[in-house]
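Z., the sequence and structure:
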Amino acid sequence: MGLRIHIKEQVFILKFGLRGEHAWFYPCGEPGAVKELLFEILEEDREAVFYYMREQDAASLEREFPGRFLIRECEEDSEYLYDRRQQQELTGKKFSGQRNHINRIKADYELSVEELDEHNLQDALKVNQCWERRSSQETGLKDERAGGVLLENREALGVLGVLVRVDGRPYAIAAGYPLCEDLFDLAMVKQVECLTGLSVYTRNRLIRLLPESYKWINAEEDLGVEGLRTMKKQMKPAGLLKMYAAYGCSSSD
């Protein structure tokens, strides 16, 4: 995504290279510091566009800079939210497809599940490397070492994960980290090769592992990638964390 982080006292912001030289994430931090940073950026970059804004961010921007921006919902940036209990139990008609996928993979292969730790980390990294090699041959956004960085820094990030072996071979991983006390970020679900039902099974096993304090799962955005959007919708989200973008009224839409 071409991200570069800029850190100041009590606030930080990301430059969003994927969407051009004037693209930024909306800053995060103490409200006064956010306001000051926005003024600084707009003095240097009159064409600045801000992405990944929550509703309260959009309201704050409009309040501080009335009439300066055209604010629109950005569907590809909105994050999918899931009820943890529903995703764990998969009961009811709307989850029948996921249950069928799990039953099929369990019938076709011998599966074993391990919580991610220092003993199986290298196997997990190998699964990720296989996925990266396969992904590099496909069209669309590339995963530039993000999965490896997540796994290698799992302790600092508080990562929880599972490794699934298929017929004894390390084959799939799922991992994520806490965003707050009741919200868990599902950051990655990857496999060596596509086996029908394996990603559903691996994801479900991770969710079952989570402490009961997590009530919600954030599966992040789909980035406008059709395959990701289809998969995230098939998981039956409980809602969306809507994101907005702010375009300068003098810039092109």
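Residues 90 and 96 are 8 Å apart (CA to CA). The mean pLDDT is 92.

Let me know what you think.
H.
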